[in-house]
Sequence to fold (390 residues):
Amino acid sequence: MTTRAVTASGVTTPVAAPQRSVTDLPKAHLHLHFTGSMRVATVRELAAQHGIRLPASLTTEWPPRFETADARGWFRFQRLYDAARACVRGEADMRRIVREAALDDGAEGSRWLEIQVDPTSYAPFVGGITPALEIVLDEAAAVSAEPGATQVGVIVAASRMRHPLEARTLARLAARYAGVGAGAVVGFGLSNDERRGATEEFAAAFSIARRAGLALVPHAGELLGAQAVTETLDAIAPDRLGHGVRAVEDARVLDRVVGDGVALEVCPLSNVSLGVFDRAEDVPLRRLLEAGARVALGADDPLIFGSRLADQYATARVAHGFSDIELADLARASVAVSRAPSDVRAAAERDVAAWLAKTSAPAEPGGRGLPPTSAEAPAHGRTDVPAEHY
Ligand SMILES: [Zn+2]
Fold:
């Protein structure tokens, strides 16, 4: 099968023919936000249903471009995210989001999804943070039993924009639902603008989560550099970092990330969209791996960035020249650093080996070998992004 890459100038150029479908590659998805996971068609339907007018960036001008990682770019991102979140008005909407995320992820080879949710945002519509979380967990368990869906665990995420005491409340809630496998809380996170709030003030919340056996997965090292990574390692001793890519800015910090065994949830196309790096080629994926870091690729917010999970693997192939063996290693790492239960791990491990053992699928004359992974093709104009990646 021939793959083509669309360059920044819009020129389509052939690149090395991929041998295997990245969609078929079994993997785990560890960085996906609840609202940001929504299909763009879904947010439009919910907006119409609730009589909400969406910004053009979610309608005629989708997907948006932010260009800069400065406060203005983040503000625009946050405003769009808030606009999407405002369309989620109750239990049915929440269940739909979990369900579609599980089915869409499953269609892209995901065997295990850790979806990140801050129940505070939806609490007003369902009677509090406890019912909000229970709805997400209940639907996660239900959809995980369906054919074609990935298995869904849940990460409860506190926001840096809110008081650290609220984070402690959320951590206690997360701890009550801690468990193993689909429909359980498996981790505790900290999200939103890294430049807001002092990381150490959230340490007490993470201590509660740690005692409950949850994975500690705060965001750090995306909008801020290596110093923020150090502060997070000092304050929280996380299992993984959301992003963490800017640890590369200081070799000693990266060494510490590796030495401490902290995995990185790298979201290449999110980084490019938000201007953390100019082009997909600039995301330091190889440098992180060469330094010994364990990396799990994630999509972050497909609704806002216009790219889903398989697109991240396609980018590793197209922008970074990853071989199929290297892609298989990435997929294995994503499972290894996840909280997937042992049966899911074993099946994924076995099926990654089977994926590698497969020879190249012959291209169908005049068409794609496999159907697309989602209704919307990845549309990402400013860098080299795979136009076809199946
Ligand atoms: Zn994120």
